[in-house]
Amino acid sequence: MDGIRATACFPTQNSSYLFLYGELCREEGPAVVAESSAPALGEPMDIMTALQLVLKKSLAHDGLARGLHEGAKAVEKHAAQLCVLAEDCDQPDYVKLVRALCADHNVSLITVPNAKTLGEWAGLCKIDSEGKARKVVGCSCVVVKDYGEESEGLHIVQEYVKSH
């Protein structure tokens, strides 16, 4: 990989390069995984960290529906596996609609405290050269249609959904 370190590298269909966390990944070479935000081995992962990892993997596999319109379509088509709703959404009708759709179609619902954080996890931001998110767009609703590959984070999220 020409000495370039990356936190994650995902191949794309339209181009041979993908910038993630401000560093260059090439499709040809193997992915170098370093400096992950996941806890070290043996440490328990909290639900928010696990959810962040699940959303990143789902985004990489084109399995996210972001926003009310896309989310409602995914839920109505019975393609939704999980719905994430921001608690700081100031539109009561929006929250009521998302909760009702999830209840009607038996879709699990998880809430996160901040819409900006959810937007960052859903890929609605630019990543600068230092790997920090810039120009983050808030997102009040994200629906997971495809989890992508299995991971420890996915198992933690599924256990959390079963227990709540």
In terms of topology, how is this protein built?
Layout: E1 17-20, E2 23-26, H1 47-60, E3 64-66, H2 68-76, E4 82-86, H3 92-104, E5 108-112, H4 115-121, E6 126-127, E7 133-134, E8 141-144, H5 152-163
Parallel strand pairs: 4-5
Antiparallel strand pairs: 1-2, 3-8, 4-8, 6-7
Helix pairs in contact: 1-5, 2-3
Summarize the structure.
With 164 residues, this protein is of the alpha+beta class.
Short descriptors:
two-stranded antiparallel sheet, single chain, disordered N terminus, 164 residues, 5 helices, alpha+beta, four-stranded mixed β-sheet
Explain this structure.
There is one protein chain. This protein is 34% helix and 18% strand. The chain has 5 helices and 8 strands; from the N terminus they run ββαβαβαβαβββα. The N terminus is likely disordered.
Strand runs, count: 8
Radius of gyration based on Cα positions: 16 Å
Give the overall silhouette.
Answer: globular
Average pLDDT across residues? 76
Q: In angstroms, what separates the terminal alpha carbons?
A: 43 Å
- β-strand percent reads 15-25%
